[in-house]
Amino acid sequence: MQLKDAITTWVSYIKRPAKRKLINYSAQLRGKKGIEIGGPSALFAVKGYFPVYLFAAQIDGANFSTNTIWEGQIQEGNNFHYYNKTGYQFIREATDLQGIADNSYDFVLSCHCLEHVANPLKALYEWKRVLKPGGQLVLVLPDKRHTFDINRPYTTLEHLQQDYKNNVGEDDTTHFDEIIRLHVMDEKEGTREELASQIQQNIRYRRAHHHVFSLELMKQMLEVCGFTTLHQQDGAPFHLITVAQKN
């Protein structure tokens, strides 16, 4: 860790009381090895709510494709660049981290990724599989009250459980009509017709937010999947942040 970044983190700890618990949790991962599903993410960087990039010994990455609308072109290999470090980049579905052994990582990170997954419980069970006993999951999801999902209803745990029972895949289109109809458009996004086109090609773009989460739903689904919730809070401008531990 560079001295200037240590100072930045310390100043943030003093001036931003809302970040203190999260900075403490991130510091507990000093010298540990983790994997981030999606990313890299600003929330885990020096000035983020959970600056684990500073402390971890190594973080690998997993992304669904070699070409995404967020990361652009990426390749499998030692190409996951975060902070001033590099980890291994896997090209894997969030629900199927094939080739990664059980109990491989001390922690799993996921920031604004799970809402793009059609079967969240299947993903959480897979992330738990690669976590060591007692390992931590840091899960960040969008707060619909401050996003384009504001008009959509919250998803229920029962719905997620039914999707898991039915082994719903990433080609699922169940929520597409609702997404297109209730999405609050921003002029930077283009037209609703352009949105509809990308949503209908979601298997390629993964733009759709299949489900809408609250902190309570996050806690419920984590408990179902075998995690204990350690800490929850919201964070500006639109984050719902949960730190959990594998039972």
Short description:
With 247 residues, the protein is an alpha/beta fold. It has one domain (3-142, 212-246): Rossmann fold. It is 30% helix and 26% strand.
Descriptive notes:
- The chain is an alpha/beta fold.
- The chain has one domain (3-142, 212-246): Rossmann fold, CATH 3.40.50.150.
- It has helices spanning 3-15, 20-27, 52-55, 120-130, 157-165, 176-182, 192-200, 202-205, 215-224, and strands at 33-37, 58-63, 67-68, 72-73, 77-82, 85-91, 105-111, 131-142, 227-235, 239-246.
- Strands 5-6-2-1-7-8-10-9 form an eight-stranded mixed sheet, sandwiched between helices. It has a two-stranded antiparallel sheet with strand order 3-4.
- The model has no long low-confidence stretch (mean pLDDT 96).
- GO terms for molecular function: S-adenosylmethionine-dependent methyltransferase activity.
- One of its GO terms (biological process) is methylation.
- This is Methyltransferase domain-containing protein.
- Residues 88-139 form the Methyltransferase type domain.
